[in-house]
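Example record

The entry below shows one chain as it appears in the dataset: sequence first, then structure tokens.
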Amino acid sequence: MRAVVIYEGMNDNTHQAAEAIGSGLAEGFDVTIVPIVGVGQDMIGDTDLVVVGGSEGNGLVDWLSGLSKDHHHTRAAAFETRLNAPTRFTGRASKGLTRLLRVHAFDMIARPESFLVTKQDRLQPEETTRARAWGSRLAAGIAASPSQSTRRYAPGR
């Protein structure tokens, strides 16, 4: 099975989280981790799982806008890195990414995830471990139910 982790970030935190998620996914997938710059639709054509992380910046929004809407049953999950503060101040980019992925017919298999950053703009030490564990849970969930009938995440559940 194949997974692609696509990230966008103005600092190294999102890249670090993407690498840790990819490490967890590698337990059941052939994983490609790539920045949003230069990612084409062909990269996700035969992918079993797409994990997207970052902000709702122009790169991810433009990329998603350029995709065809024929990704029925391609599984996806979204994450972000954000300051460890109330979300009313920091926002939750992963929720917006989840909505955009759903509009493009991706099957969301997990709730949007946040990995926290310190005031010094560094990923909190335990967040790398948590990101790796999240990737492992994503992989295990798909491996346990490899058919397209994988239990999907739906808001409000």
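Notes for this example: The mean pLDDT is 84. The chain has one domain: 2-144.
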